Amino acid sequence: MISFNKIKKGLTLIISNEPCEILEAKPLFKGRGHSILQAKIKNLVTKNIILKTFHPSETFEEVELNKIEANFLYSHRNRYYFSKKNEASQRFDLTKEQIGSSVKFLKPGQSIEGIIFNEKIINISVPVKVHLSVVEAPPGIRGNRSQSGTKVVTLETGAQISAPLFINIKDVVEINTETGEYSRRIK
Asked: Which of 35, 59, 91, 98 is surrounded by the most beta carbons within 10 Å?
């Protein structure tokens, strides 16, 4: 059991019978009363982020999450299909809502991690940095200050991101999947 004073960023706990990860935790002191802990938590099943207040009398169970290597296969009607690495017959699927915003950076054959809770795959973890090729890019006009040195390009997955003016079609770029931002040009 995890006590109030052990709660910190990165810890995974069971809250309301679901696994949750602590994203932020700040202690607050109320006048003459006791201290409380204000935390931002992410439900690992639904990917919802909520604010929660923890009190000193509360205790929580720590979550043991297992991970497996998997590959993204394809998507169909807002469902995304995966298979365990080196075991193509062992497949599982998740909805767009379960995966969250990083779904727009998935391409067939990409390696990901499946997150297992109670012997069931509840979600996936997309690598923080992925390399994707640019399939559509308007020409960058030198001296155009209205765009602040950036333009919107379309990636091979269909995602649109803001990239520097020098990015062209067929360039391979590195994307941060957590922020959805351009990192650098690979080639």
From this structure: 98
Helix, strand, coil percentages for the chain (3-state, nearest 5): 10, 55, 35
Of 80, 138, 136, nearest in space to 104 by CA: 80
In the structure, what pLDDT confidence band is assigned to residue 1 with cuts at 50, 70 and 90? confident
How is residue 149 written in tokens? 């040195």
Residue type, position 104, single letter: K
Q: How many CB atoms lie within 10 A of CB 171?
A: 16
d(CA 60, CA 7): 9
Which of 61, 66, 78 minimizes the C-alpha distance to 20? 61
- Within 13 Å of residue 120, how many CA atoms lie on the same side as its CB? 8
User: CA of 164: how far to CAs of 128, 140, 167, in Å?
Assistant: 20, 8, 6
pTM score = 0.74
For residues 186 and 133, give the distance between their C-alpha atoms in angstroms, rounded to a whole number: 9
Torsion, Cα of 130, 19, 10, 27 (10° steps): 140
